[in-house]
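S.,

Sequence below, as promised.
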Amino acid sequence: MKLSIIVPCFNEVQTIAQVIKAIKQSPVEHQEIIIVDDYSSDGTRELLRSGLADEVDQVIYHSKNMGKGAALRTGFGVAQGDIVIVQDADLEYDPQDYLAMIQPILDGKADVVFGSRFAGSKPHRVVYYWHMVGNQFLTTLSNMLTNINLTDMETCYKAFRREVIQSIKIQENRFGFEPEITAKVSKMNCRIYEVGISYYGRTYEEGKKIGWRDGFQAIFCILKYNLWAEHRK
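The prediction came back faster than expected:
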């Protein structure tokens, strides 16, 4: 079994080297690490080209900034592993959770696994209250329309059987990827599992990028991909 790790990256010069190191130290031995640099302007691209790219299987450089969803679309398209997982290029999510994430797929029970920051007993950094409220609202709204009972729809950690994720046409270029992919795997009648993960959230001073505008976009995407037939595939 090979695990493809897709790392969408934008302006993460302070953390990208540490993330690569953490991925390599994860409990999953057979890995394919694919970094998609979404036209970083803070020195990340230069750092990758100066030798860091030699430590991973592939680095793809976007010619313009398009967003996380676009970077994932690029990475999913070239993945060769049996299972594909998303890893943000910051230090909020711990690759030590990979084995727990993919175990339901390895056991033949799941096609898709969500890593929940709100389930289980693993450590969580205490950060923004209103972000938590927003996440719960978006997850509840999504659940009402998909009829699945997730606790954390907006999580970064999502693992897929490769044939599942490569069969889906991803339309969203930014953070709308999360509600889009949730709606689409639910409509495919995929076997969806959820496992508790650890979470080390960043502050905006530390580089967190998602904001309130992305929350409104997520609401739009939840409605769009669940209710508007032409966008469901």
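The chain has a mean pLDDT of 93.

Coffee later?
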